[in-house]
């Protein structure tokens, strides 16, 4: 049997955690041959609830699940982690300004970045889910001295999946017929789901869906505001779909991207497409056989697309300014 992969998950007793841990233990992320050890982190007040999750995980009797560790000590939770999924963060409280939310979460991600750097496996791959995820990942990355900053990412895969679902419904095709539909920018309403380079069954998307008003109007708005729509309908934020997107993100980082497909990942900008270098920004990427991602080059962007991308970059620069003392 292969050596187990150690997967650290923060916020593990939360609602995303509850949808995320079981598929990981079942082999949905690393495949049916790969044992896993789950290293679950929670705040002290939620450790009792986390113990309940541990009992259920064990009661599933997953053949691949070698151990479950529950802790509120980051140095225990991140010890030798091969993958870290940073889901836990502080929610926005009543009357709280966005700037306060960003700064209060920043403190958490300084601590988690430092702890990862101190004790995780040197090749540990990290995905930040907890919001504001781009800036949280920027802060955590800034703490890396030993770990590879390129292994710090954040999640816009849910936004990509939401865009795919809208297009599939509109064109009446399965999601698998749609390729190269990528999300650019911040995981916030300024994100840009670029449909102009996408294809449906190999045809340009805009030929199949010949409806500019819908694409630039209802489609864009639905994707950008889907999180709020789900809260309005369910009374709680999206959880199962967010967990599934996190699974997609990590699984697709560990395997070569199929020819002709693009993934949306928040990664460090290298200046491509004029996005300021160093920002944590969602780009279309592909992953090679070594598990390294590459920004897709040579994409043609209209003036309107470029303006949307720059607008999201401006928002991220403003967020970076708010936390500059943590970088
Ligand atoms: P919950 O409030 O259900 O769970 C969060 C859990 O994290 C709680 O159990 C809490 O005790 C724990 N926690 C908080 N700070 C922690 C810390 N420092 N260390 C360890 N655990 C800690 O939230 P949930 O619905 O699971 O959402 C988690 C995060 O995902 C939120 O920040 C949310 O905004 C974010 N989301 C991000 C998405 C994305 O696409 N990037 C989409 C879904 C989701 O909104």
Structure notes:
- It is a single chain.
- The chain has 327 residues and is an alpha/beta fold.
- It folds into two domains: 5-154, NAD(P)-binding Rossmann-like Domain (Rossmann fold), CATH 3.40.50.720; 157-326, Alpha-Beta Complex (L-2-Hydroxyisocaproate Dehydrogenase, Chain A, domain 2), CATH 3.90.110.
- It is 42% helix and 18% strand.
- It is built from eleven helices and 14 strands.
- It has helices at residues 15-26, 47-59, 74-77, 98-119, 133-142, 157-171, 205-208, 212-224, 226-234, 240-253, 303-322; strands at 5-10, 36-41, 65-71, 83-86, 125-128, 152-154, 178-179, 182-184, 192-194, 199-200, 203-204, 263-268, 280-287, 293-295.
- It has a six-stranded parallel β-sheet. It has a three-stranded antiparallel β-sheet with strand order 7-10-11.
- α1 packs across α10 (240-253) and α6 (157-171) runs antiparallel to α8.
- 44% of the residues are buried.
- The mean pLDDT is 97.
- It binds ligand NAX.
């Amino acid at each position: 049997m292969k050596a187990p992969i150690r997967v650290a998950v923060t916020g593990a007793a939360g609602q995303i955690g509850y949808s995320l841990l079981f598929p990981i233990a079942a082999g949905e992320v690393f495949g049916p041959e790969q044992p896993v050890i789950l290293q679950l982190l929670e705040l002290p007040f939620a450790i009792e609830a986390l113990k309940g999750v541990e009992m259920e995980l064990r009661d599933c009797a997953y053949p691949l699940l070698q151990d479950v560790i529950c802790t509120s000590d980051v140095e225990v939770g991140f010890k030798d982690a091969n993958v870290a999924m940073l889901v836990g963060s502080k929610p926005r409280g009543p009357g709280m300004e966005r700037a306060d939310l960003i700064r209060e979460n920043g403190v958490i991600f300084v601590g988690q970045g430092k702890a990862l750097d101190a004790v995780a496996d040197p090749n540990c791959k990290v995905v930040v889910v907890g919001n504001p995820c781009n800036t949280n990942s920027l802060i955590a990355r800034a703490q890396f001295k030993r770990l590879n900053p390129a292994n710090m990412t954040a999640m816009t895969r849910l936004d990509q999946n939401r865009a795919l679902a809208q297009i599939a419904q509109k064109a009446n095709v399965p999601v698998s017929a749609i390729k190269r539909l990528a999300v650019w920018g911040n995981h916030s309403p300024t994100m840009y789901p670029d449909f102009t380079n996408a294809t449906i069954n190999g045809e340009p998307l805009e030929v199949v869906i010949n409806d500019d008003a819908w694409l630039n109007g209802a489609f864009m708005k639905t994707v950008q505001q889907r999180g709020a729509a789900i809260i309005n309908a369910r009374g709680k934020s999206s959880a199962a779909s967010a967990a599934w997107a996190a699974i997609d993100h990590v699984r697709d980082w560990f395997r070569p991207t199929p020819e002709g497909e693009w993934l949306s990942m928040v990664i460090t900008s290298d200046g491509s497409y004029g996005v300021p270098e160093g920002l944590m920004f969602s780009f279309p990427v592909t992953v090679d056989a070594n598990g390294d991602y590459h920004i897709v080059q040579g994409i043609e962007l209209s003036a309107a697309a470029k303006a949307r991308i720059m607008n999201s970059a401006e928002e991220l620069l403003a967020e970076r300014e708010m936390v500059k003392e943590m970088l």
